[in-house]
Design brief:
This protein is mainly β. 0% of the residues lie in helices and 27% in strands. The chain has no helices and six strands. The strands form three sheets. Strands 1-2 form a two-stranded antiparallel ribbon. Strand 4 and strand 5 form a beta hairpin. It is globular. The chain starts with a strand and ends with a strand.
Length: 81
């Protein structure tokens, strides 16, 4: 599961953790864990719904980071399957 928290310092805003709901153990999903998804697309940008398409996840070495969405940035496209 992924979570995006813009309140955290840059470079540490994307959190990857075991699925099972919100990280507090309550079993609910936070809005920051929901990403737009286009079924059938081979690769796509991942933008948290809370950010209205303005922020996308980006591959940053061995971790995930965030940046302004840029359709020309290959590091912002992910293959899911």
């Amino acid at each position: 599961c992924l979570n995006f928290d813009p309140r955290r310092p840059a470079g540490d805003q994307v959190i990857l953790f075991s699925c099972g709901g919100r990280a507090d153990g309550g079993g609910l999903v936070a809005d920051s864990q929901e990403f737009a998804f286009e079924q059938g697309e081979a690769s796509q940008q991942l933008s948290p719904l809370t950010e209205d398409g303005g922020v996308c996840l980006v591959a940053d070495g061995a971790k995930l980071a965030s940046a302004a969405c840029d359709s020309g940035d290959d590091k912002q496209f992910f293959s899911l399957g």
